[in-house]
Amino acid sequence: MGNIKPSEVSDILKKELEGVDLKAEFKEIGKVLEVGDGIARVYGLSEVQANEMVRFEDGTMGIVLNLEEDNVGVVLLGNGINISEGDTVYRTKRIASIQVGESLLGRVINTLGEPLDGKGPIEGEMVEMPLERKAPGVIYRQPVKEPLQTGIKAIDAMIPIGRGQRELIIGDRQTGKTAIVLDTIINQRENYEKGEPVYCIYVAIGQKGSSVANIAKTLEKYGAMDYTVIVAANASDPAAMQFYAPFAGAAIGEYFRDTGRHALVIYDDLSKQAVAYREVSLLLRRPPGREAYPGDIFYLHSRLLERAAKIIEADEVARQMNNLPEQIKDKVKGGGSLTALPIIETKAGDVSAYIPTNVISITDGQIFLESNLFNAGVRPAINVGISVSRVGGNAQIKAMKKVAGTLKLDQAQYRELEAFAKFGSDLDETTKAVIEKGARNVEILKQPQYKPVPVEKQIAIIFAGTRGLLLDIPVNKVQEFEQEYLEYLENNNQDILETLKKGVINEEIETKLTEIVKKLAVKYKN
Amino acid sequence: MNLSKIGVRYAKALLELASDKNKLDVIYQDLKNVEQVMDDKSISLYEVLNNPILKPSFKAHLIEEIFKTNVDELTLKFLLLVIKKGRESFFDAIFRNFYKQYNELNKIREINIITAIEPDKNIVEKIKALAHKIVPEDYKIKINTEQYKEIIGGFVLEVEDFEFDATVKNKLQTIKNELLNTSYKIKL
CA end-to-end span of chain B, whole Å? Predict the structure, then answer.
């Protein structure tokens, strides 16, 4: 506190008091009939809207989910320990929403947009974005055409992701699902430095507080928090907070998407969100369906993931987009995108369970991670055979497309033949060749965590692999070679890397690369 | 099934039958009395009725013994029907909806006035006039008054789903919130 005279304090207080509006007015209210297990039933509130926020006498907020004949069902966004029967409930006349602005970047917030990181209040210009919003209609979209580089060789080469796509990451626990998305976030640093940021939103649902803190620290360490928002609904938070968290993430992403920028939102993970939604639904006495999930669990996920989109380039068309929130209308620009990477955790590799099949069918492809690959040291543990990207191919840069075109097929074939190879040596030449090449490509596609590779280097090394230039190098030396090769290119052939980055590959570059590989490969020969 | 419909349906059935037999006001008064007995915490009748261990026949017998001399035959029949159908946990919802439908039928609106001390007639009339902002003119207003010391002064008016809070307590709270929320920026 500075030097303030007591008389000044009373002056300020006087001014403040004059500003207080004490005029009483009619407020719409209801009375609590029963409360417990994170939901309340409220009598009255006859004008209340679905999804409207209500405030209880003790300050707890709630969201109206059930409108029934004689009462309304409200989910509490707090523990509600001080709410008792007969308490008054007030309408806020606000649909559940979150305050979004640039100042969210670098922060950890909860579903309601309140900071959790102890860095003080979030200030700056904010716009109110509704949690539930209809996805943009067909005429406001355009096909996915720009790549979203994950920095992971196996993904960018074989299962490319485009901006505006929804790509599911699915696998058992401990298979590196979160590692993939963290690498993807870290890899966006390059775009941020170039001044064309891809804003990242990491939504942590039902995780331990310590895990979220770890993730925040990791992202901080790699300089990724400058363009990232973390939305956390921890395991100890009310179920309603958990199942609304992805919607809050989507709302933040839409802010960037609708203002003509690129955003990436990660839902980690949607199976926990489905469980939270099931909990709330059952408590609200909605009828259970398969695995006791409510009937609208598919709709819950599809309307969430439909909000990922690539918006049309033309500003005047984009400005007429459906369901634009009032406060963002004057900022709308075309050409933005929202990419979604939902994560689903399977039990014992069972992709045919209810939630996994649902989300697989909604998304534009999936990356399937397997624990036996992971344990065999193939990391990222991507099963190439059943991983697909249905739209990303159009978004891949030309050079990568040309170089990696056959890689996926080759690797799938290799996986099948690999089983044969274990039985004996009586293999024909072609089979042997496929296996030899496949084994080396597997080595190339291995990648340590937090080490995203820029796309030009990916092209350079995959070129060597798919053209069969590594056959003379023993399998266990491939990674060593890769490192030397890329370092060599960086030091001596910057021009080649620059051209590859632009997506150009021609005969001249191909000959040059082949020469370099051959030159460097000599010393690895036994 | 949507459980909140149950109270509405039972109340409607009773209301229609009562109005056919011209017993509306009798039944209304009966239900008020029954509710009072059930709400009486010292005899915990409501808990007994909601106890799943007790047999329905016992509950029916209990109700009959308690109310047979005090309420109309129709009311008693209704109470027994509710128990026979195993809906005794919905008594409060049924009562609530019966009053609501009864008031609607007779064009009555109940309002609650909460004051710190007993209000005089003039003030009650003024508050009633205020309530007519919400209640249509052709509806009669039935006033319930309550006294709460905690509100310090002023009054709270509750009409249907609306609340008009003109208490001293509320004003103090508003001032408190307003002063706490302001972040003063001290320029040196």
Answer: 65
| Residue numbers of B between 18 and 57 with CB closer than 8 Å to A | none
Interchain CB contact of B174 with A (< 8 Å): yes
Give pLDDT tens digits for A265-298.
Answer: 999 999 999 999 999 999 999 999 999 999 999 9
CB A72 within 8 A of CB A45: yes
Query: Based on the domain organization, do B15 and B88 belong to the same domain?
Result: yes
* A1: closest CA of chain B, how far (Å): 8
Per-residue pLDDT reduced to its tens digit, A394-446: 889 999 999 999 999 999 999 888 877 777 667 888 888 899 999 999 999 99
Please count the helices (runs of H) and the strands (runs of E) in chain A: 18, 16
Residue A341 to residue A344: CA distance in whole angstroms: 10
Structural domain that includes position B80:
3-103
Strands A97-100 and A127-130: antiparallel
ipTM: 0.85
Residue B175 lies inside a defined structural domain of this protein: yes
Contact of A46 with chain B, judged by CB distance below 8 Å, is answered with yes
pLDDT at B23 (0 to 100): 92
Q: Are residues B98 and B140 in the same domain?
A: no
Confidence bin at B182 (pLDDT 50/70/90): low
- Note whether B139 and B163 are same-domain residues: yes
What residue type is A452 in one-letter code?
A: P
Q: Name the nearest CA neighbour of A305 among A333, A336, A255, A343.
A: A343
Q: Which of A390, A415, A440, A467 is catalytic?
A: A390
The structure tokens listed for A187 are: 């890899």
Lowest pLDDT segment from A2-6, A380-384, A477-481: A2-6
Q: Provide the pLDDT confidence category of residue A2 given band limits of 50, 70 and 90.
A: low
Same domain, B96 and B147: no
Classify residue B141: in a domain, yes or no.
Answer: yes
Q: Is the pLDDT of residue B185 over 60?
A: no
Task: Choose the closest CB to A70 out of B97, B165, B171.
Answer: B97
Contact across the interface for B7 and A70, Cβ inside 8 Å: yes
Residue A385 φ then ψ, to 5°: -60, -45
B164 interface with A at CB cutoff 8 Å: yes
B184 close to A (CB below 8 A): yes
Q: Answer whether A465's CB lies under 8 Å from A441's CB.
A: yes
Count how many pairs of residues, chain A against chain B, have C-beta atoms within 8 Å. Answer: 68
Q: How many domains does chain B have?
A: 2
The answer to whether A390 is a known catalytic residue is yes
Q: How far apart are CA B110 and CA B131, in angstroms?
A: 10
| pTM of the predicted protein model | 0.91
Q: Residue count of chain B, please give it.
A: 188
Report whether A462 contacts A153 (CB < 8 A): yes
Q: Map residue B30 onto helix, strand or coil.
A: helix
Residue B1 has a pLDDT of 57
Inside any domain, residue B96: yes
AA identity, residue A174: Q
User: Which of B56, B82, B103 is where one domain is finished?
Assistant: B103
- The answer to whether A69 faces chain B, any CB pair under 8 Å, is yes
B188 domain-assigned:
no
CB contact under 8 A, B164 and A20: no
The pLDDT of residue B84 is: 93
